[in-house]
Design goal:
Layout (H helix, E strand, L loop, with lengths): L1 E6 L3 H11 L6 E7 L2 H11 L3 E5 L7 H11 L4 E6 L7 H6 L4 E4 L4 H16 L21 H12 L3 H16 L5 H19 L5 H9 L2 H7 L3 H20 L8 H12 L6 H8 L3 H12 L3 H19 L4 H7 L5 H12 L3 H5 L5
Helix pairs in contact: 2-3, 6-7, 6-8, 7-11, 8-10, 8-11, 12-14
Length: 358
């Protein structure tokens, strides 16, 4: 069950949101409501809700300022801004504050629930595409292609250009087949672009970010009234995103090569799949599979060989003690070093160092 905090200076809007949340007592628990940003901060710090639905324009402290303060203390808290179309100029600040999603007043019950669900699911970030096993069983089970969006976000984070181009084409081709009412997909597309811009701010340089911001795609999408306008601006955003990323040379390096490069620079330190997963924003299973497919060996084998080769170099070219060579090559203790060295080379380090064996 997820705790929900509702923040809005209009009582009618708070009551509307509460009536929706209370329809799903097995999924959501209303932990409080606030009419201004200062109240929101106090309740959030006290109750630690999983999700906050936050109005923007409020007395004492506006929604963006309150959100920034809450995010600085509780980064994992999902904050969904609930704004009117006229307030969408604040979208870029929301990106910079690392907020999670947008609702556009007046939002339907379906849109509210789906936005909460998709934001929670993105926060959990499980598996190869970030999907929760139960996510597809959400309340309304929309046809919106969340799994494709996950692949796009993942490919940006892991700098996989091929995956990015393929998943982007898949997403655009899907939208071209849509015949639904504009408002049924508009909010989800806005939040897709919102999340991607937020992700790109972590990847691109300041000049590229300025180019992206100058196009105002979030505002254009919020003001669009017809499907062809939405599709045109969505395609424009993705074209610009790809162009900016292609100018970044990191995107020509495969995930396996990025992993190998990191290991080459850090094999003397502790390296684990969990660490690599955290650094490269992908699951351990996906990292292991991609590396083995391209390099023909496991990550553990690659790390071991780098360490053994370094140890051999030191044995041949220095008088450093074997114990120090062990630690300098990334092994936790000398007995482990001796065992791995012999299984790899057929000799223990002391035998390898004898002149007649060189």
């Amino acid at each position: 069950m997820h705790g929900i905090l509702i923040v809005d200076d209009e009582k009618i809007e708070r009551n509307y949101l509460k009536s929706i949340i209370n329809k799903y007592p097995s999924k959501y628990l209303l932990v409080g409501e606030a009419s201004n940003g200062e109240q929101a901060k106090r309740i959030a710090f006290d109750k630690k809700p999983d999700v906050i639905i936050m109005d923007i324009t409020m007395p004492l402290l506006d929604g963006l300022q309150a959100s920034k303060a809450i995010k600085s203390k509780y980064e994992s808290t999902v904050i969904i801004l609930n704004s009117a179309y006229s307030e969408f100029e604040f979208a870029q600040k929301a990106v910079n504050y690392n907020l999670d999603a947008y609702l556009l007043k007046p939002a339907s019950e379906e849109a509210i629930i789906e936005t909460i669900e998709s934001s929670l699911h993105k926060n959990k970030y499980h598996g190869e595409t970030g999907l929760d096993q139960d996510f597809g069983k959400s309340t309304y089970n929309w046809n919106y292609p969340y799994s494709i969006v996950d692949k796009i976000v993942d490919s940006v984070l892991i700098k996989d250009l091929d995956l990015l181009e393929n998943s982007t084409d898949e997403y655009i081709n899907y939208l071209r087949t849509v015949t639904a009412n504009v408002n049924e997909y508009k909010l989800f597309i806005i939040n897709t672009v919102f999340v991607l811009i937020r992700t790109l701010t972590k990847i691109l340089n300041k000049e590229d970010i300025k180019i992206l911001e100058s196009k105002g795609y979030l505002c254009k999408l919020s003001q669009a009234q017809y499907w062809h306008e939405i599709l045109y601006n969505t395609e424009g955003f993705f074209e610009l995103m790809l162009a900016l990323l292609k100018n970044n040379y990191f995107y020509y390096t495969s995930l396996a090569n990025q992993l190998a490069s990191y290991i080459d620079d850090n094999y003397k330190n502790d390296i684990s799949l969990e660490l690599l997963s955290e650094l490269f924003h992908f699951s351990p299973a996906h990292i292991s599979r991609k590396f083995h497919q391209e390099k023909g060996c496991t990550i553990n084998e690659y790390v071991r060989n780098k360490r053994i080769n370094h140890a051999i170099y030191l044995l041949e070219n220095s008088t450093i003690t074997i114990g120090n060579i062990s630690s300098m090559s990334g092994f936790s203790n000398i007995s482990h070093f001796n065992r791995i060295f012999k299984s790899t080379t057929g000799k223990v380090p002391s035998e390898y160092r004898k002149k007649e064996d060189l």
